[in-house]
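QA checklist item 7 of 12: single-chain prediction sanity check.
[x] sequence parsed
[x] length recorded as 448
[x] structure emitted
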Amino acid sequence: MPMNFDIELTSTPITSHAGLAFIGEKLSEAKFERHMETIGPANTRSDRMADADLAKTMVGLICCGKPHYDAVGEYADDPYFPQVLGIEQLPSPEILRQRMEVLPAGAGKAFRGFTTRLLEKHPEYLAEKIQGKDRCVIHIDVSPMDNSGSNKEGVSCTYKKFDGYAPIFAYMGPHGFMLDNELRPGKRHCNGEGTKKWLKQVLRGAEKVAPAARLVVTDAGHDAAENLLLFAQTEDTDFLVRHNLRTQDPAAWLADAQRHTGVDNYQQVDPGARRWYGQRTVEVTHGQQQATIRQVWRATERIAGPDGQLLTEPEITIDAYWTSLGWPPADIQAFYQQRGTSEQFHSEFKGDLDLERLPSGKFRANQHVLDLGMMAYNLLRLLGQQMLDSGLVPGRKAQSKRLRLRSVLQNLIYMAGRVVRHARRRILRVFEGHGWAPAALSLGRAPD
């Protein structure tokens, strides 16, 4: 069957990544470039590629969903890619790999500095009203990355029983902007060595960007006295940490809850289950430090299944938390259950940006890629929110609270465009019939 179109090659510059123009605009920050200059060697050849250009190249690749060194070769003959990112010369795959692997550890400060300044400019996306008060919620969680079948430095068996890394992430706000991260060997416990230092780094970063009081939320992996005391002693910061019950007796927790609220003052879950809430204060000590911290819990006793079939023995389930919040225990429980949203942020970072398998065999280089991935993730998240705010996003997605990164990639970054030179200007022309074109053009008018 004959094709409907004849296919020909053209010398007219056409790009399938028109949306990178908005990424390049935000990467052209003089402060970031100057910071990158300070971390490099003092005396270099005049033709040495700038470290900032390498970083921009990797961010551009990640924003295209191609966080691999070899992918830069696809743009070797494409003038648009380096021009739109403000890069004087595009590195080859070999140079990109070599230079990324020798970037000093100090590059991480430059990458985090860019992230901090970006978030500082957009406080409207970081706070939300909870229980009548504006708060910046910080979700902290470990999310293993499957790098099975590789011999990369730091790859080892994770708690999910595959070989890989076990990085820890901190997300802020209802839209899930990434505040910080740390790459870790797969075998390291989520509260292992260096965790307190990293938590302090997260809290310092949050203090710089948060327009409202902070609320740190973590799972039971960070239930440790030194962490609780750190949160309790940090100014203008509340916390909610799931309690690790370890080998504690659920029946004792149930009895305490019944004494607290009364045996007959329960919540009926279904015909076979009842629920009580309890609370108390506990003296928490670590070394010379101590604090009185509130503990709340929900105890559920099930004597029959939802279908009414009696159980041979009652089943008792305890959900317990450490918190500085004064909310009723039921509200604490309901709020923590919303934490599952942060799992979607992991999925977008690792899946939509294809960052599950990191590209380098060197641990430090992979930490740099993770940091550059954080920059790309936040830039794409910001563009998605700004398009939503424009009111020009078509279809059902216009009703969303946030756009998934995959939607931003498919509808903005991968938008086709024609590059035209006219009167000493470079013009990127986008087809006016594209459904997302009005939303994309609104970004040129969005505040930086």
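[x] summary fact logged: The CA atoms of residues 217 and 336 lie 8 Å apart.
[ ] second reviewer sign-off
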